[in-house]
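Appendix B. One record, verbatim.
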Amino acid sequence: MVWFDGVVLVAELNVAVVGCGYWGPNLIRNFAESKLTRVKYVVDLIPERLAKLSRRYPGTQFVSDFDKVLEDRELDAVVIATPVHTHYQLAKQALLADKHVLVEKPMCLNSLECEELIALAAARKLVLMVDHTFVYNGAVRRIKSAIDAGALGDVLYFDSVRINLGLIQNDVNVIWDLAPHDLSIMDYLIGLEPTSVHASGVSLVANKQEEVAYLSLQFGSKFIANFHVSWLSPVKIRRILVGGTQKMVVYDDLEATEKVKIYDKGVDVSATGDEDRYKTLVEYRAGDMLAPAYDLTEALKVEVEHFADCILNKKSPLTSGESGLRVVKMLEAANASLRSGQPESLVKKAEVLLR
């Protein structure tokens, strides 16, 4: 690395990617193509996976011994793309070895593990980032700019549907598998923390994990958020609606081109006067629809560049450990609500954790 006035001018970070199952190959490709990073190691316990990828990346070492990799003093960062129950231990080992960490979503199985990793990274002045990929999606970032510019007016609701047929998991339910995507998008776009979560779901096949679930999040304001996730839908839907007092947004990730549509539609309510103060007039607005342009760069490429930039220039990530913690808290509350059948307070949970 070459530094000038605290800013890196030339650098190539040595990275180890742990796990090359479903998502790992995408991470390997983007880290290998980045001018700021070099994939020095790929780690996996299944030899067939390593052998398959080794032909594509001849300059990378494909190994099964993670402990040995951490002993390499030239290694700068570890990228974790393994099952969620392994995230905490692998990330902790990497941080204790003074390696920066990018960990796949969800960050950990519980908020206490997340908090420990956050504290450890802060104490060692290391970057801890969570792979909430959709936050780096150009369409999502375009919606964020519209909200921040006030184009929607006051935001009233967030409604998402993420359903398809499969992939059914054995270690987590559908909420932990699919909901982190949309929870992280909501967290990024809206910037509000919920006060309670009410979840309902059902297991319809033999794996004892809920395959269909609904989440309703309440906030300390008029804003509300709802999520529908399912592994048992005959059709695939990836759609988010954000409603405001001025305009409304539809984000359809399955659209080939116009993924974002901003509608000049809404409802105007006004009183009829003092004599009929209990009566109101409702007017419906139906204006134009705008399909704005947005950055088409692959979200994972943007994320990889951001991770490298945060390490090289000592910045805090957009999807930091704190954002990962917020999502895990919502997932924990949703699971608790599933078991009790009642809304789960996030305010009480925060108070308990502070004691």
